[in-house]
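Render this sequence as a predicted structure.
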Amino acid sequence: MTPSQNRKPFLRRCTVTLIGVLTLWLVCFSSYGLQFKQECGRLSDAVINTQPSVLLSGGADAKSPDEKKATQWFINQAKGGDYLVIRSNGLGKQAKWICQHFRNHINSAAEISIDSIEDASHPAVVELIESVEIIWIAGGDQSRYHRFWSGTPLAKALNLHIKTKAIGGTSAGMAILGGAYYAPSATAITGQQLLQNPFHQNSQDILEPGLLQHPYLHNTLNETHLDRILKGETRSSRAFGFLARLSQSAQSARVIALNEGSFLGINPEGKGAVWGNGGYLLTTNTQPEQMSRDQPLIWLRGHRAVTAYKLHRSSQIQQTLDFRIGVFSGFDVEYWYTTQGRQGFNRVPHEAGH
């Protein structure tokens, strides 16, 4: 392989006249009206042998005492490569934060806002995605990601990236990494609405298969901001309702539901680790007894409809999160069920289970 062939494809196209940041900005993005900012370093043409890993964040990352630890783990998967934040609706400050705290562990960091199907189909954007080792999908509105990115060359490039490189996301970015996801086009559904009517009009945007297909998140929906109180409830009952819907089409369906300020990393072997404020992993092998339009959800199954593993910061205690073979142990367990929609929704510890 010649030196020119060994260069990353994005660098081959974008270094025609100049080298580095100036060319990347002026030639590849500015002329097309794309918002892009190189925060530090330069995109390298070196090809790095990376590891296919994923990092999920429940949102409000700064609330976590372990934000830096989780991010360090994530960056270590790419062995000092190029870090790219992708988002919609304008640039943010994630790449700047990465440069401030991890400059010696990365080659470069940049952000790009992809705000239309045209943006997501542009060859320069696709080649940028192909060139970097680490991709972080920012928070925001997952309906924009769904609307602008689904079925585009960008989505194809991201799915290829997933196979060999590191990818992660927070809030909306975590949501769309699931094999199924919820991207409300209008008012987001509450848990109370979903349990009282699993096919409520605001649930029509539960999308399966998802935009991205990570092998360890197959048949999995990601719920974020689990502990945020909205309209008098957290998102626990909504996560339960989402799992009920997912159980219709997928055996061994799962919901990963993370609190704000929490992180879940999955390494190339499918082994998981938890940082920060934790959350729940919900699993099931059964379908609800009653799940019909305009009828409350009934999902009892001997008071063990759903097994809820209570995720907490990984420690010296023996814990196993194996997403490759579906083995989860070493965590406190609850059983979640409902006898009559929202009114009958219960969560009981394993010891109290029937």
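Summary. The radius of gyration is 21 Å. Residues 80 and 119 are 28 Å apart (CA to CA).
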